[in-house]
Amino acid sequence: MARLADPVQHDRASELALLRSLEEYIPRRRGSVSPVSFSVDGVADSTVYSALADPARKFETLELLRAGPTPDPVRWEFLRPFERLTIAADGATEVWASDGSSSRAMTRLLLREHYVPIPRPVGPRRPVSRSAPRPELFTGPTFARYIRSTGIVPFAVALAVYYPDERVRYEVDLVDQQLLLDLRMNRFLTSRRVPRAARVGYAVDAVVARGELSLPSARALEVVVESNGLSALDLAPLFGGVRELASSALDSLVARRLVSFDRRTQVYRPRVEALGSPADRTRARAVPSAPRANPRLRSSVMELLAAAESRATCPLCGEPMTPASKGILCAKCQELVGSAGVQSPPA
To answer: Any idea where the domains of the chain sit in the sequence?
Structure first.
């Protein structure tokens, strides 16, 4: 897969980097709803990689079939159950249910976690360019052309299926061919999910598909848009319980004007109408994202503000502290404590 690009950039160093990327991706994978299998242009494939590596395969028809025993209905949380998805070249999709009934939808592909070959240097400081035109969302044929022209190795892809009433995102692990659980399962209350129209889902996918957001920011955007507003604490379970990572991802979305932040309630809310505006999508692309948080830094901004506020008032009487105060108590309380023969701790 990595040797498909022209010129070939995949040497020994790139092979080792690919191995490291794969080793980092595998522990991050979520659980599986069910195994799946693929059929490309009417031919069943052991893996999608074999179809992508064959330039004769045009991906005019892509079929995703659920395999294995029927999964527990709980594992479909936040998803719509299906038995087979048949995707045409233009994205027109036939969704087949377990009872044999079918419905129509449209599908686009999102490139999720992947490896980009290390560019081979040309001359002392000029690397070979590894950029390629990247559409906002892929159909089957455009996805295959993009992968073959860049040598990118996809580890996971998302199938954004636009039903008449909503968009559902199915994420598929290509390494072991598994349909993955939704990111929010067992970490987010289903009652807090707000279904959005398919056009809103398409706008979100278009922003994410450009590849300019970090993976945490993309995840945060997808979840916040399907809500009436969330705090960093609400999103922390999606980031391993680390609130600082959630705050950093959300702040980068605020900088791009994709979400708004209410300082009084500490709640981030989606700017749903802005997502559908071409002018705002252009502005979101132009504004640089906020710097990513250091996961080793455990002090959040809210905690620092709370500490500053506690230092600014006397903990006994609540009166404001004067700039000349050197202890943690105001002058009046310090005098009372001193008269009682108790020594107050230093600030």
So the answer is: 1-182, 183-298, 314-339
Q: Which CATH architecture has domain 183-298?
A: Orthogonal Bundle (1.10)
* Count of CA atoms in the C-beta half-sphere (13 A) of 346: 0
SS3 state at 28: helix
Cis omega (within 30 of 0) on the bond before 7?
A: yes
Which residues fall within 8 angstroms of residue 221, CB to CB, at 6 or more apart? 204, 207, 208, 213, 253, 258, 259, 270
**pLDDT tens for each residue of 231-242:** 999 999 988 888
Segments of the chain with pLDDT less than 70: 5-8, 119-135, 276-326, 328, 337, 339-347
177-220 pLDDT, tens per residue? 999 999 999 888 888 888 888 999 999 999 998 888 888 999 99
Q: What is the token pair recorded at 61?
A: 């028809």
Output the CA torsion sign for 198, 142, 39, 5: negative
- Report the relative pairing of strands 61-66 and 259-262 from DSSP bridges: unpaired
For the record, the structure tokens of 189 come out as 């209350």
What's the maximum distance between 2 C-alpha atoms anywhere in the chain? 91
